Amino acid sequence: MSDDEIIVSGSKAVKLLSLPDFPKANLFGAEVYDGNDACVTQSVLNFNNGEILEKKPIGFPQDGGELKPYSNLFYWADAWTPSFRSTIGLHPHQGFEICSFVIEGSIKHFDSQQNKWIELKKGDAQIIRSGNGISHAEEILDNSRMFQIWFDPNISKTITQPATYSDYKHASFPVLKKEKISITTIKGNNSPFQMDSEGIEIYEIKYDDGLHEINLDSKKIYSFFIKQGNLLYENKNLNEGTFIKIEKESKFNFKASSDLELFEIRSPLKLSYSTYYQRFN
Fold first, then answer.
1. pLDDT tens-digit profile of 222-248?
2. Which of 28, 36, 243, 266 has the lowest CB atom count within 10 Å?
3. Residues 6+ apart with CB under 8 A from 180
4. Sequential DSSP letters for 157-176
């Protein structure tokens, strides 16, 4: 499967995606595999005249991607600098929980409450609980990469609450090593990471090469991003940069190779509140 192909989260079909004229070495795949028998494209964008490149498994309507917000996941961007650092200037947020996860290198964060620049390195994470309003700027340093993911914590309530900010060092996240697998819990049991969004669990998982069978909770939606390596699933070889969405399943069977690493988010199939996307679409 080439870097120009997309599989939609859970789908049985493959669709070619026409990518912009970016160097192949700087692309982290463009595939989305959707469990709903539908093929979707992952939007490919850039900031600051190409200084920051992005792929969005879940983008804004104007971004052109086809996978829409689901559960309390509203937005997911995979962003990186192909060479030099670049800054996204001060801009406002309200209501949402804006989370950043440093995948490679370093990023810097500034907001109107901290009033200073804070550096985060590989494996670190931050959350802006944007509440009734906060402005922030971010800088992705040279040859660095991050996920920025927006969660909907029931905006009808959080929009009236004061904004807060927290960041967490990689060393603060618990690691569980089992046979053939190593699990870092970013949000979940024994992790210090605090958020208001309902029922969210976040993990980074390393798999030994070979066959794996994962038990799934049918009341949750599983969102996987292949950070590294390869995954053979339903006779399709999925590479680095592929996004996989699975719901209403009890098992996830796959074959791992090339030191597979997955970034995983578990979110509720049904929420106790209506999301922003549900109310306005």
1. 999 999 999 999 889 999 999 999 999
2. 36
3. 207, 208, 210, 212
4. HHTTSPPEEEEE-GGGS-EE
